[in-house]
Structures are given as structure tokens and as C-alpha cells.
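REQUEST ID: PR-0412
SUBMITTED BY: lab tech R.K.
PRIORITY: routine
TASK: structure prediction, single protein chain
INPUT:
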Amino acid sequence: MPARIRIERPAGYWADRERVYEIVIDGQPAGSVRAGECGDFAVSPGEHEVQARNDWSRSVPVKVSARDELRLVCRPSLSNADLWRPWRVLRAVRGGRLIELDVSS
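STATUS: complete
OUTPUT:
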């Protein structure tokens, strides 16, 4: 029986609101998620590496163990208020990590 990884991408962030995040599981494109959407991805039970990407940025790869259903939340690493803090924007851009991907409880 396959396990499922659910990626939730909340709406409400100005940063990247029009961008589509590509979801990569174990190095292979699995699908995409837009702002305010959820994506369900069937995987084999066990360990997997999940990453979210857009055309010029990516999240840190997250190692997860999927048994039945696993929920991850994907969001821009910059909040709406951070857009007015140039040093935060510069730090995020230089690090190339403008997307966060977190395991949700």
C-alpha cells in the first residue's frame, strides 16, 4: 500500500504568490503546488528526500519517513514584513534559500 506525502502551501504571502513551486521527491519531479493549494504525492513507504523549487530558488532538502500520510508545509522564507528589510532579503537571496519546507505536526 503506497504512502502519501501531502504538501500544503498557504496563501497570504506576497513573496512568490504567483510562482509555482515544483516538488521534487528523491531527485525526481513529482508535481507542483501553487499558493493556497495542496498537493498529494504517492510514494513507497520508507525514507524519502523532499525539496521544493521554483525557477531560481529552492528549499533545503528535507529527509522524511513516510508510513501512511505525511504532511509538509511549504512557504516563502521571507514574510511580508521582511520585504521591507533589505538585509533579510539579501541574506536569503545570497543563500539561495527562499523557500521553507517544514514537517507539520
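NOTES: The helical segments are 86-95.
REVIEWED BY: pending
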